[in-house]
Amino acid sequence: MVCSVENGRDVTLSWYRGGKLLNQSSSPDLKITLSLPLKVDEQNRDSYRCEAANPVSKETTVVPYSCIESDPSKVADSPGRKQDYIQYTAITHIKPADNQLYRMANSDDVDTA
Known about the structure:
The protein is mainly beta. The protein has one domain. It contains no helices and ten strands. It has a four-stranded antiparallel sheet, with no helix packed on it. Strand 5 and strand 6 form a beta hairpin.
């Protein structure tokens, strides 16, 4: 499996199995797409998750064990329609203007001044 995300400032891409960090990648080159391949242990019945994070937010994509297949030609989301990839989630780093208030999810207003 490969997890990919458009790179941005301070973006880290990570693979986890269960709660354990398996692999992590980041790059100062903002013009690239970060990609993090993972060799799947088909004997392990845990879920895998890819996490893209920056200092502002994080996005996670979970791959349940039931979706893991060693032969990409056998991966299908409906009869007759096959896919050999997992769509990624992109996150961006947003810095509010000086003296601007912004609201964080499940939080109070934060003054950025």
